[in-house]
């Protein structure tokens, strides 16, 4: 395996660790609505991205035209605002484990989409890793539904699961489209693309803010609002700024079929943070699911290893 591929895998793991906090934030801030969480997170993301991009604006603006800005707005709406609102609803209505297991299907869908690209690894070679990832997600799903966290209003829980499916489709479409736009814009670094995405997302969050906060800010103590903005800022910096930058670097270093597998680590870290929050150890079934997911990524990486050169006799 080349050093470039190892670097891509390292960035993929880092992005998963940073993105995992997204699943924890709605549980920590359960007293606030998903729309409020999304508006606050992306307002902060937009402000930080604009501040970091400002010193580099002269060098970047000549590379970004109307077509690129429209693409950034579409990607920001799909992969940030829509995804996070649906995810927050899923976490608050059906639980973090159920949400993470459904969104954990992203690697399977992204790899299937990437298998159609020219020069991609054939599906039969990817089948073992995809099946292991699918088995891991199904094991997590069974544990979440049949375990001790399946209480609550069944209709609300069902709506939460449907929101998780919507988040899955939203994030899968974003992942594929974002990878293609990064390939179309090789003169824009992954970090700059992340910052440009942040500016576009911040602009959309400004439109969302009146619906999120006007008339809906009562009922919370000042301490709750302080915690709210602290968590929103932390998620914006860790997941949106740093996590997106790591993911964009991984996207450029890895083929889409392998890059899609890296999203598995978001699920693993989301579960890990959830276990810490609830102060419990994973069950034996959850441990088995984690082993399946990690093994699936390892097998997928092995499938992308270049074949050794064949030496012919002189």
Structural write-up:
- By secondary structure, this protein is mainly alpha-helical.
- The protein has one domain.
- 79% of the residues lie in helices and 0% in strands.
- It has helices at 3-19, 21-28, 34-53, 57-61, 66-94, 96-103, 106-114, 123-146, 154-184, 190-213, 222-253, 256-262, 264-278, 284-303.
- α3 packs across α10 (190-213), α5 crosses α10 (190-213) and α10 (190-213) packs antiparallel against α11 (222-253).
- The chain starts with a helix and ends in an 11-residue tail after the last helix.
Residues in helices, as a percent range: over 70%
Helix and strand content put the structural class at mainly alpha
- Put simply, the count of helices is 14
Oligomer: single chain
> Quick one: overall form?
globular
Gap between N and C termini, in Å?
28 Å
Strand content: under 5%
Radius of gyration: 20 Å
Write the layout of secondary structure elements.
Blueprint (H helix, E strand, L loop, with lengths): L2 H17 L1 H8 L5 H20 L3 H5 L4 H29 L1 H8 L2 H9 L8 H24 L7 H31 L5 H24 L8 H32 L2 H7 L1 H15 L5 H20 L11
Give the gist of this structure.
With 314 residues, the protein is an all-alpha fold.
């Amino acid at each position: 395996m080349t050093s470039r591929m190892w670097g891509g895998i390292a960035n993929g793991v880092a992005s998963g660790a940073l993105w995992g906090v997204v699943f924890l934030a709605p549980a920590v801030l359960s007293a606030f609505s998903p729309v409020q969480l999304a508006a606050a997170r992306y307002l902060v993301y937009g402000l930080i991205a604009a501040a970091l991009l400002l010193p580099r604006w002269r060098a970047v603006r000549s590379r970004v035209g109307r077509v690129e800005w429209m693409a950034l707005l579409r990607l920001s709406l799909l992969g940030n605002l829509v995804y996070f609102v649906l995810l927050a609803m899923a976490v608050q209505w059906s639980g973090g484990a159920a949400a993470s297991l459904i969104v954990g299907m992203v690697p399977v869908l992204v790899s299937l989409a990437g298998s159609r690209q020219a020069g991609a690894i054939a599906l039969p070679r990817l089948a073992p890793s995809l099946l292991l990832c699918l088995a891991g997600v199904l094991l997590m799903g069974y544990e979440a539904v049949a375990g001790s966290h399946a209480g609550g209003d069944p209709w609300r829980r069902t709506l939460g699961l449907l929101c998780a499916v919507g988040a899955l489709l939203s994030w899968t479409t974003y992942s594929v489209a974002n990878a293609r736009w990064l390939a179309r814009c090789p003169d824009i670094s992954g970090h700059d693309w992340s910052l440009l995405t942040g500016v576009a997302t911040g602009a959309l969050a400004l439109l969302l803010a009146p619906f999120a906060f006007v008339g809906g800010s009562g009922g919370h103590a000042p301490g709750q609002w302080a915690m709210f903005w602290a968590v929103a800022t932390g998620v914006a910096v860790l997941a949106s700024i740093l996590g997106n930058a790591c993911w964009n670097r991984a996207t450029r270093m890895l083929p889409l079929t392998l890059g899609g597998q890296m999203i598995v680590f978001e699920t693993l870290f989301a579960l890990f943070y959830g276990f810490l929050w609830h102060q419990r150890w994973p069950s034996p079934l959850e441990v088995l699911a984690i082993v399946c997911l990690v093994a699936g990524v390892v097998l997928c990486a092995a499938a992308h290893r270049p074949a050794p050169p064949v030496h012919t006799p002189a």
